[in-house]
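Narrative progress, year one. The postdoctoral researcher (J.K.) led the effort to move from monomer predictions toward full complexes, under supervision of the PI. The following entry was the first complex the group processed end to end, covering 584 residues in total.
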Amino acid sequence: MKLITAVIKPFKLEDVRQALAEAGVQGLTVTEVKGFGRQKGHTELYRGAEYTVDFVPKTKIEAAVPDSLLDQAVEAIISAAGTGSIGDGKVFVFDLVHAVRIRTGETGDAAL
Amino acid sequence: MKISIFKPLSLLVGLVAMLGPMLAFADDPVPNKGDTAWMLTSTALVLLMSVPALGLFYGGLVRSKNMLSVLMQVFVGFSLITVLWCVYGYSFAFTAGNPFFGGTDRLFLNGVFDAATGAFALGATFSKATPMYEIVFVAFQATFAAITCCLILGSIVERIKFSAVLVFLVIWFTFSYIPVAHMVWFWAGPDAYTDAASADANNAMAGYLWQLGALDFAGGTVVHINAGVAGLVGAFILGKRVGLGKESMPPHSLVMTMIGASLLWFGWFGFNAGSALEANGSASLAFMNTYLATACAVLTWSLAEWVFKGKPSMLGAASGAVAGLVAITPAAGNVGIPGAFVIGLLVGPLCLWGCTGLKKLIGADDSLDVFGVHALGGIFGALATGIFNSPDLGGPGLVTDWTMNPPTVGYPGIGAQLWIQAQAVGIVFVWTAVVAFIAFYIVKLTIGLRVPEEQEREGLDISSHGERAYTN
């Protein structure tokens, strides 16, 4: 099992959700986050006060997938979230040690 | 026959005692119902300028953790000054005393209404034989005193103790607002001027700056310079907000600020046009000037921002509106349309500089730019009033002899009137600075001015008032 964590542009969330669903991913957790990468923030000016906003709003998605689905899922995220411009985000993949479906007690791939 | 007490706004105390209540005869002038309706409406409009307009304008500019503290300071400050106004403020500001401070004739509004006869005391307007109910004037002026005190709060928000706000306001209101209002606006009214001898006697009893001949239609000196300078002094004495310059402190809701500025614009028609005290041509001129100068300042502040800062901002447009309103306040009924154009167009960029370049030079944390907008805009407006009052520049001129009927109108010349305006500006500037300095120090040395740093970081909403503006 693998845990995919991706940081994407917020307006791409719906496209990514759809692509992952088509790839067979059964569930997704979404968080609104802020951060920085190579994309620069912006400055805001309020009368004389100038503030640099370094952290850009992003959406973080997390999906646990069976090993067999990993490549398709990552590919789905990349193609759905990509715009070709700076700030498209990143995909991280982790080994997932254990998973349990709380309602039934199923474990491993069956819990995903 | 209807019986009423005839008593001009500011008739000498001794004279009143001698005459006592007089029976009015059928041909004695009574307040015009249209004037009364307009002045009652204006009074309510000025109330709207404080609550909610100023509260929202200021509140939107602070961080969300301090929103309620700003609303609370404005709401309670406004109420406090209104009560003090009825206890002693009105009497000391608008009855005869000396050129700096009035008398005790109207403590607790004594005598404005005679319950025994059902008669209302009458006050003066700016037209002969055109009285107004004094109680309406009391209410109208109460809203001025109260909003002026609330304006100061913009300099000291996000760090001042609530109790310190209240104590400071009591002291400053008593020793700066009241005497300045008396100095600028107290006079005996046109009906008291019957001949040269009465004119001399009345002039000697009038406020010091009124005697000088200073023009201030609705409060460039009394309201804006008075409050703006006091605010700056407060910002110096309080010190900067924790984290200023290191942490981001963007306004938490410019939507609120825009709504507040818009309601200020709306209410300001009562403030400026109401200051004519009648529903007449002067009120109409003040109304149009208030409308026009504000629109001009919105355009020029926005344009200046666009050119010099890169983008025209909503905050800039809203600030421009307030700057325009401030600058046209002393001028409202004292200049013509050309004056409104020039004052509005120039004050936008001027106050933008006041909030940026000048603010950096001064170095105080005048948090919401009370000095940069109100004091600077008020000074500019007060001086410009002296220039654009000139009939050569489309202004209405000023009354040079109140004993004539109708009063003689003239103009002393731009240099002469500008010098008078400059003296009024200087005197009010120094007066309020000294009173504010002493008042803030009294509070600092007794109950203390600032909340502890921990409370400031937590936000005054929770730490001073035990509640949050937004719960999600």
